[in-house]
Specification:
The complex is a heterodimer of chains A (about 270) and B (about 220).
Chain A: H1 3-9, H2 22-45, H3 53-56, H4 60-92, H5 97-111, H6 115-130, H7 135-161, H8 164-172, H9 177-207, H10 219-230, H11 234-261
Helix pairs in contact in A: 4-5, 4-7, 4-10, 5-7, 6-7, 7-9, 8-9, 9-11, 10-11
Chain B: E1 3-11, E2 16-23, E3 27-31, H1 38-46, E4 53-58, E5 61-65, E6 70-71, E7 79-82, H2 94-99, H3 114-120, H4 136-148, E8 154-158, H5 166-183, E9 187-191, H6 194-200, E10 203-208, E11 211-217
Parallel strand pairs in B: 3-9, 3-10, 7-8, 8-9
Antiparallel strand pairs in B: 1-2, 1-4, 4-5, 5-6, 10-11
Helix pairs in contact in B: 4-5
Chain lengths: ~270, ~220
């Protein structure tokens, strides 16, 4: 490739180098998108299936309600799982040994078993026994518990990345343990954890689809209902995929912005 | 200053730090090769490490007494510590780095007020900048100011000039002398550079493999 051509497609990848001009970015992103769409166009061309979009159009409210339910569930579980993860990460760093092992067992148990099994056991056994009747509340708690274990490990890695001397100097200038966490360790850990945290939150949104197995009428279950009533398939699943993408895309864009704001050289 | 370090014992990787000394100098140097146990001794005094046995007393105030099972937490010791790597908080601007060390109860216009410390160390113009943008010498001054803002009764400096080139050392030394004269805080000054010690210290304790080899007094 000669120099003139490469200037349209090549940019520096060294850390700290300025981003390429907007036009160049848009053009190249469009090119990549075109390549992806070609794959899908090719695949769908080979499909002997006539989509009947007008069959599912009357069910648009059903989709919208499900989508909103998914947003609600995910938002609540996002808060819940962050709290669970933070508590578990702090517990694992605790001087009190029972608490430390409780944190470790929680993480291993949850990460080592499938979410589907956790939902079934959690809903039909645990929450049934303690008398939680509201399936939405149960769903949020199960999802928080599941995602919290992953977030716990992300936060723990972030905390461990903050050097020992930061702890010591914070304590030497008179901060208590709690203040050291609040003002010195967690803000620095946060920067390390933002990218994996965003990935986890995006997963959380998608994982909420599994709650459909216990009859929580979220996005996936509503789409399946529409599909069953109209004998359609792709017409329901394509909007479903799009709906989840609309939720997860802003999360990763937002994280990139946060990453920039919290950036500092070490 | 009367700093009593009695019956101190702390097992380190391949020797035991054993110190028994009473220090009375204004600026006492702890001199010795790398790995002699100098930083560990400072950590003990600051309360960041637990000794096997020790009685540490600063001006009649007991900081650590293993015989009684007593160890004040670092924040109650009134000791300012500038660790070797400075450990400034990289996510905060200079001003916030400094103010975390400032006790809310501290008098606003006293010797250790923000304004006074900033003036002595010429920090004013740096206040709004990020810590990572500072030069080596500026970082050193900020770390020194952060320790001073805790209104310490004793200042621990761990090789404050190590890693700086000769020109920069010559620039920082007057600040250290200024701190010594202006605030009258006794200092323990860890170093392995004779010249620095001669310029600043009135008492030298030589440490090697955890033992005190010699104790000398510098002529001012």
């Amino acid at each position: 490739m000669n120099a003139r051509w490469s200037s349209y497609f090549v940019a520096s990848n060294e850390p700290g180098s300025p981003p390429p001009p907007l036009g160049l970015r848009l053009a190249n992103a469009g090119l990549a998108l075109l390549a992806v769409s070609l794959v899908f166009c090719f695949s769908f061309q080979h499909l002997a299936y006539q989509p009947r979009w007008n069959a599912i159009y009357p069910y648009r409210r059903l989709f919208l309600q499900g989508w909103l339910t998914t947003i609600g569930l995910s938002a609540a579980a996002l808060v819940g799982s962050t709290l669970a993860g933070l508590c578990s990460a702090l517990a694992q760093g605790s001087r009190f040994l029972p608490l430390r092992y409780l944190g470790k067992i929680y993480v291993e148990l949850v990460r080592g078993t499938p979410l589907l099994v956790q939902i079934l056991i959690g809903y039909y056994v645990v929450f049934d026994a303690v008398g939680v009747q509201n399936r939405y509340l149960a769903g949020v708690l199960i999802l928080s518990c599941f995602s919290g274990a992953y977030i716990s490990e992300i936060i723990r890695a972030g905390i461990e990345s903050v050097g020992r001397s930061q702890w010591e100097s914070a304590r030497a200038i008179g901060l208590t343990r709690a203040q050291t966490y609040r003002y010195v360790v967690l803000p620095q850990a946060l920067r390390q954890t933002l990218p994996p945290l965003a990935g986890q939150f995006a997963s959380l949104v998608k994982d909420s689809s599994l709650l459909s197995v216990v009859g929580i009428q979220e996005f996936t279950l509503r789409a399946e209902m529409a599909s069953a009533r109209t004998y359609t398939s792709l017409e329901c699943y394509l909007p479903l995929a799009l709906g989840y993408l609309i939720l997860t895309l802003p999360i990763s864009l937002w994280t990139r912005r946060l990453e920039k704001r919290h950036h500092f050289d070490t | 200053m009367i700093l009593l370090l009695k019956n101190i014992s702390l097992p380190l990787a391949d020797f035991v730090l054993q110190v028994d000394v009473e220090l009375a100098g204004q600026v006492t140097a702890i001199f010795g090769p790398s790995g002699a146990g100098k930083t560990s001794l400072l950590d003990l005094i600051a309360g960041l490490r637990r000794p096997q046995s020790a009685l540490i007393q600063l001006e009649q105030r007991v900081l650590t007494d293993t015989a009684l099972g007593l160890a004040l937490p670092p924040r109650q010791r009134q000791i300012g510590y500038v660790p070797q790597d400075l450990a400034l908080f990289p996510h905060l601007p200079v001003r916030k780095n400094l103010l975390y060390g400032c006790k809310p109860s501290a008098p606003r216009d006293g010797l250790f007020s923000y304004e006074h410390v900033a003036a002595v160390l010429e920090i004013g113009p740096l206040a709004g900048r990020g810590v990572t943008e500072l030069s080596g010498g500026e970082k050193q001054r900020v770390a020194l100011a952060r320790a001073l803002l805790t209104s310490p009764k004793l200042l621990l400096l761990d090789e404050p000039l190590a890693g700086l080139d000769a020109a920069l050392k010559a620039k920082i030394l007057p600040y250290l002398a200024r701190v010594r004269d202006e605030f009258q805080v006794p200092m323990l000054y860890v170093s392995h550079d004779r010249q620095e010690i001669q310029a600043l210290c009135d008492e030298v304790v030589e440490l090697e493999r955890g033992q005190i080899l010699a104790r000398t007094y510098e002529k001012a």
